[in-house]
Structure formats: C-alpha cells, structure tokens
C-alpha cells in the first residue's frame, strides 16, 4: 500500500489530548457542554486548516438555545450513543490536512483520558500528525476502530493498546514506528476485521501470539524490517482471508500452518529470504486467488495444478533455483537444474584444489630454479682496490648537498643513509651513502666488519658496495662512509607497514605471491652467505628494514654492520674467538640469533632461526 504525505503537521499527542478532553470538566461527566467546550478548544489550536474542514465548527446558537447538540452536526463529529444522547461517539478527520501547535491542556491528559467512554471510532488518518502514540490511549476501552495511518508518528507501538478489548480494526500503517510488535495487541479478542502495521520500521520476529487472532480476517505486516521465521502458529488464524508479509527480512521455509488457512484468498510473501520448496498444499487451497512468492530463494519443483495454472494471479519471479511447473513460468526442467547443481558442486570443490596445486607447483618451480642457477662469486675486490675509483669527502659532501636532511633516506645500525648523485666512470650515478657515526660505541669496528664482509661477496640479492671513503671531514674530524648501490623502492618494512598518513590510493601493497618471492630472495641470499663462501658470513640482523626492493621488487639484503665472519676454528669447532662488530649481544629484538647467546650451538641451528623469524 502506498503512503500519501499531506501538507501540515501537528503533534499527535496534542490532537489526542483535545479528543480525550471531550469529557473533562468540573461538572458531571455527562454534561454535553463539556464536549462543546473541548471541541472549540481543539479548533482554537488548529492554526492551519487549508481545506476548511472545521469551518462548520461554530458555537453560535442563532437564538435556538441548542448549544448542547449543535456540534453533533459538525463536520467529522458523530453523536450516536443511545445510552448517552448528545455525546460524541466518533471523530473522523481523515485527510483534512490539519496543522497546529501543542495544546496547553496536554498536562491534563493522564487524568481525563479514561472519561471518553462513549468514543468508538477514532480516524485521524492521512494527516501530518507527529510525535508518539500515547500510552494513555489504551484507556478508551469502548474504542472499536482505530485508524491513525499515513501520518508522521514515531516511537514504538504502546503496549497499552492491548487494553482496547472492544477493538475490531487497527490501522497504524504508513508511519515511522519502530521496535517490536507488542504481544499485547495480538491478544485482543475482538480484533476480527483488520490488523495493519505495514510501511513502518518494525523489527524483531513475528510473535507466536499471532495465533490468538483466530477470528481475524486480514493481517498486513508488510514493508517493515521483521526477521526470523514465519511462526507456524499463523495456522490458528483460521478465518484469515488476507496475509501480507512482503518486503521484510523473513527467513526459513514456508510454515506448514498455512495449510490450515482454508479460506485464504490473498497471500503475499514476496521480497524476503525464504528458502526451501513450494509446499504442495498451496495448490489445494481453493479460495486462493492471489499468490506472490517472488524474489525469495525458493528451490525445487513448482506445482502444476490449482492456482499454479493461472498466470494472472501467480508471481514466482526472482527464484532462480525453481524448476518445472507450467510452461508459462519458463522455469528449466528439474532434470537440468539437478545437473547444474552437480556442476556447481564440482566447481566449488575443484577450483580451490586447482589453485592450491598451482600455488604449490609455482613455489616448487621457483625453489628449483633458484637452486640450479649458479651462484657466481666474483673474485675481484669491489673496493679498496687499485682498479676502483676513490671518492673524497668533498665529493660526498657535494653529492649530498652538505648532507642535507632533504637527502636523508634512512638510518642504519651505526649511521645515517643519504641519497647522492655524482659521476662514476664518466656516468652520472645515483647512490646511497651510509655515513658512519663514529661517536657511537662500536661504530669503527662495525665499519671494518662491514668492509671485510662486503669486499669478498657479490650476489644479485645483496646490496652492492661501490666504494668507501675514509679520511677527515671539513672540521678535521675522522670521517668514514660506504657508497652503496641505490635501491629505489625502499625497504620491505615500508611496504609491510606503510605510513598511515599516506594517501590510501598510493598505499603500497604486496600480493601473497610477491611476498613469497621476496622470502625466497632472502633465503637465497642467506644460503649464499652461509654455504657458498668461506669462511661463512652470518648477517645477525635480518629484519624487514634491512631488506631493500628494487624496480622489479627483487629483495636485496643490506646493513652488514653486525655481521659475523666464522673463521676456521669457529667453523670447525663451533666455539672460540671470532671477528664481530661487537662482543656484546646485538641485533634487533626478535632477530638475535641463538649463536650470540650460546656459541656452542651449531651454525645450522641459528641459520634456520634467522630465516624463520624473518618469514614470520
């Protein structure tokens, strides 16, 4: 059902206050002038009446002296109570576009609400009333029809409405009500005509007490946010002719209780998440002349008799797993659907297995390719040789703009790393210049250790050393620096833990396969250091910040400041003195090899330890 907004607004509680004050007075409850005065007060606070709905509300007696009964002829007012003649029994202001302010009489509402014993019909639908439905409305025990639909009411449905034991019809649809459906209103014995709560924002499940409405003709709970399953107790509503539950989030199968609804004419369960087959008993309900089960997740064969043979009163679209049925439904045959289901199962199981096999195969291939590729050890010295060009302090200072902070790209264990540009072998080259901070304890030893380690090695996964600079700076202080190959893509740490301030569009990402290749690169580099040169070299500080990535995201191990050279006596006996950058335990926490804590451990043990922690 569509909801039609109107033009003006008035708080619902204010309007009900005036209605409920029809009996409020200091004189007898049956004094008709009380109704007149309250109606006039109600009109006074209606400031917007564009349709002149209250134009007939005039207390002028014109000399007839019939002030007490004239209001019974006013628009929207009915006085048909034979027990109390002249009393207001119905107020019908449907679609009047009324608007106004909150009445000052609202404070008397709790006191006088129980005095409207004669009011039987309250129809305020299709207006712009706002606010909440007052709990005190439940004291109008003689009310038989309540219609406040198509307004702007909010809040929850008051449980006090369950006290309206004479209520036969309730329509509070097309509002902004929320919360659960109160169980109390589902136990009103006189509710036999209509229960319409559609087009709100009601949530929760449908209470099982709905089965108490065994004489009700129509239930409309559509276009809400109801969840859970349709209760089987719905089958107790044996007089039900209309059941609308469409546009919710209902789940589960169609309840078997629907079979008991022998006089059901209109059933709409569309646009939910219902599953399972269409029950065959639906084709046996002879009175059913409208069935809408579209846009659910129903499956299985469609019955082909009864209502299912009439295309004009049946809708099953949006259920892709249905099959069979009459030809006009255009569902596939059930045999082909079963075949497709088996194919889906085959795909579900085969695709993950194939992906796992491919991943294992690629990993194995990469490992084998890395192992069979010869690890070439170049014998010529890379620096400290006569053939290699020497670089002075002034050249480094000029290349780094006097070691400007703008050229600073990182920090190592014993110094800072700058980016610089100068001519090497008649070519303009960009290099990384690691300046040793000689004020740090062990820095000189670290520099010598790194020189001794790097002068004998060359490998594609190790950062190349171009040359060194050892001399005095412009202040006459000792100066030592390493000139290294510049790796443009930064460290692995920057890729794994990007700066949170970076733009999300440029944040660095590494796929699972790329991470695996990087781990293999590091493993190959460590294998080279441990097994392919003598004496072996132990890096001692493998961590993501010491792994650099080039243009192709190939890993290069750097920073040998804490490296250990395992001389023959250590290599053979696994203990004794050895050259190291420090006699104390050093390295990053989490990467310190057990060999530094207990030299009696075999070399192989802490080599595995190195790589294992890095992979973690």
From TrEMBL:
Record-linked InterPro entries: Kinase-like_dom_sf, Leu-rich_rpt, LRR_dom_sf, LRR_N_plant-typ, Plant_receptor-like_S/T_kinase, Prot_kinase_dom, Protein_kinase_ATP_BS, Ser-Thr/Tyr_kinase_cat_dom
GO cellular component terms, A-Z: plasma membrane
Record SMART domains: S_TKc (SM00220)
Signal peptide: 1-28
Domain Protein kinase: 403-616
Membrane topology (UniProt): Single-pass membrane protein
Name the UniProt record assigns to this protein: Protein kinase domain-containing protein
Organism name: Setaria viridis
């Amino acid at each position: 059902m569509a909801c039609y907004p109107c033009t003006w607004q008035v708080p619902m509680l204010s309007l009900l206050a005036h209605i409920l004050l029809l009996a409020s007075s200091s004189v007898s409850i049956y004094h008709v002038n009380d109704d007149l005065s309250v109606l006039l007060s109600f009109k006074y606070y209606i400031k917007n009446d564009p349709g002149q709905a209250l134009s007939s509300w005039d207390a002028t007696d014109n000399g007839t002296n019939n002030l007490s009964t004239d209001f019974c002829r006013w628009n929207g007012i009915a006085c048909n109570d034979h027990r109390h003649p002249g009393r207001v029994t119905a107020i019908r202001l449907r679609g009047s576009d009324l608007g106004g302010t909150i009445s000052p009489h609202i404070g008397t509402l709790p006191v006088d609400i129980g005095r409207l014993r004669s009011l039987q019909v309250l129809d305020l639908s299709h207006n712009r009333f706002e606010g909440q439905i007052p709990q005190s409305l439940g004291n109008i025990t003689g009310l038989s029809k309540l219609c406040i639909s198509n307004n702007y009411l909010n809040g929850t449905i008051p449980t006090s409405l369950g006290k309206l034991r004479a209520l036969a019809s309730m329509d509070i649809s097309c509002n902004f009500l929320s919360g659960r459906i109160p169980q109390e209103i589902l136990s009103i014995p006189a509710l036999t005509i209509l229960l319409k709560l559609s087009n709100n924002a009601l949530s929760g499940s449908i209470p099982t007490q709905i089965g108490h409405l065994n004489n009700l003709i129509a239930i409309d709970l559509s276009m809400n946010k109801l969840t859970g399953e349709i209760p089987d107790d719905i089958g107790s509503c044996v007089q039900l002719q209309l059941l609308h539950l469409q546009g919710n989030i209902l789940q589960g199968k169609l309840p078997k209780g629907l079979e008991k609804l022998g006089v059901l004419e209109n059933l709409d369960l569309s646009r939910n998440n219902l599953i399972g087959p269409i029950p065959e008993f639906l084709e046996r309900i002879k009175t059913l002349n409208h069935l809408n089960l579209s846009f659910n997740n129903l499956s299985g064969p469609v019955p082909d008799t009864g209502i299912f043979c009439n295309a004009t009163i049946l809708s099953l679209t949006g259920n892709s797993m249905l099959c069979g049925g009459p030809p006009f439904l255009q569902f596939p045959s059930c045999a082909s659907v079963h075949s497709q289901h088996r194919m889906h199962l085959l795909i579900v199981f085969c695709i993950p297995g194939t992906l796992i096999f491919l991943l294992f195969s690629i990993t194995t291939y990469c490992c084998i390719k890395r192992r069979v590729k010869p690890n070439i050890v170049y014998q010529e010295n890379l620096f400290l040789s006569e053939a290699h060009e020497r670089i002075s302090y002034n050249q480094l200072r000029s290349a780094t703009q006097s070691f400007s902070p703008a050229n600073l790209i990182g920090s190592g264990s014993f110094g800072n790393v700058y980016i610089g540009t100068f001519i090497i072998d008649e070519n303009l080259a960009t290099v990384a210049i690691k300046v040793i901070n000689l004020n740090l304890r062990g820095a000189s030893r670290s520099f010598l250790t790194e020189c001794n380690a790097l002068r004998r090695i060359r490998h594609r996964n190790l950062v190349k050393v171009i040359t060194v600079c050892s001399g005095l700076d412009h202040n006459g202080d000792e100066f030592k620096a390493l000139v290294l190959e510049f790796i443009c893509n930064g460290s692995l740490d920057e890729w794994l833990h990007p700066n949170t301030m970076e733009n999300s569009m440029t944040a660095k990402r590494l796929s699972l396969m790329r991470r695996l290749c990087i781990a293999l690169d590091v493993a190959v580099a460590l294998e080279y250091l441990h097994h392919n040169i003598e004496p072996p070299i132990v890096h001692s500080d493998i961590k993501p910040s010491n792994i650099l990535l080039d243009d192709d995201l190939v890993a290069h191990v750097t920073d040998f400041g804490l490296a250990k050279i395992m001389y023959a006596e250590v290599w053979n006996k696994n203990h004794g003195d050895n050259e190291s950058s420090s006699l104390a335990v050093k390295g990053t926490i989490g990467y310190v090899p057990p060999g530094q804590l207990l030299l009696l451990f075999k070399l192989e043990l802490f080599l595995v330890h190195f790589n294992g922690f890095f992979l973690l």
